[in-house]
């Protein structure tokens, strides 16, 4: 609970610190090393995540992703809406279809809703705050997350993210290519 309060406070405090206007790009592909630390387990599950977004117009985009972590696979596909709240702040809302393959060749399906804010804090740095709700096989999870992106140039970015729900902490570090 303390992590969620601190994350919410950090996001709210970061909004007035945003210094430079930025046009947020919703055309990208990214890859990341992923570490999932389930609650109650002493070892983490590791693997890779590949995902991306494609903008149909300035306010609508499609999303898709694949995650392979310690023998478990997850796939998502969906669409999202985004708009500027200020010159350097975007809000986004996404809906997605989810599919997970777990041990014993069992496939579980469901849906998810994501929402968040993207802040351009400096010309080379973006901070995102995200909230999601998922329902897979009638098991629901609410997740809070934060992601920081550092721009190497117009196309390449490195990022790190952290997400938390009642079942696990997820850490990612990766690279994004904007097109």
Gist of the model:
This protein is mainly beta and about 180 residues long.
Structural notes for this entry:
- It is a single chain.
- Helix content is 7%, strand content 70%.
- It is mainly beta and 179 residues long.
- The protein has a single domain, classed as OMPT-like (Lipocalin).
- Strand 8 and strand 9 form a beta hairpin.
- It starts with a helix and ends with a strand.
Number of domains: 1
General form: globular
CATH architectural type: Beta Barrel
What strand order characterises the main sheet? 1-2-3-4-5-6-7-8-9-10
CATH uppermost class? Mainly Beta
What is the structural class?
mainly beta
Number of helices: 1
The biggest beta sheet reads: 10 strands, antiparallel, barrel
Look up the CATH topology: Lipocalin
Poorly predicted runs are 13-21
Taking all Cα atoms into account, the compactness measure Rg is 16 Å
CATH H-level name... which superfamily?
Answer: OMPT-like
Q: What portion of residues belong to β-strands?
A: over 45%
- The overall average pLDDT, rounded, is 90
Portion of residues in helices? under 10%
Note the run of SSEs as H and E: HEEEEEEEEEE
**Topology, number of strands:** 10
Give the end-to-end Cα distance, rounded to a whole number of Å.
38 Å
């Amino acid at each position: 609970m303390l992590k969620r309060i601190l994350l919410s406070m950090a996001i709210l405090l970061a909004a007035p610190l945003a210094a430079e206007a930025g046009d947020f790009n919703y055309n990208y592909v990214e890859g990341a090393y992923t570490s999932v630390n389930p609650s109650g387990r002493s070892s983490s599950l590791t693997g890779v995540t590949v995902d991306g977004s494609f903008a149909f117009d300035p306010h609508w985009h499609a999303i898709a992703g694949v995650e392979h972590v310690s023998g478990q696979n997850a796939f998502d596909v969906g669409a999202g809406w985004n708009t500027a709240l200020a010159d350097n702040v975007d809000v986004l809302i996404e809906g997605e279809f989810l599919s997970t393959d777990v041990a014993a060749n069992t496939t579980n399906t469901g849906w998810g809703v994501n929402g968040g804010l993207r802040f351009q804090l400096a010309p080379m740095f973006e901070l995102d705050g995200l909230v999601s709700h998922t329902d897979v096989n009638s098991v629901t999870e609410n997740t809070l997350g934060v992601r920081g992106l550092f721009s190497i140039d117009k196309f390449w970015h490195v990022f790190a993210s952290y997400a938390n729900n009642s079942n696990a902490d997820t850490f990612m570090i990766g690279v994004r290519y904007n097109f």
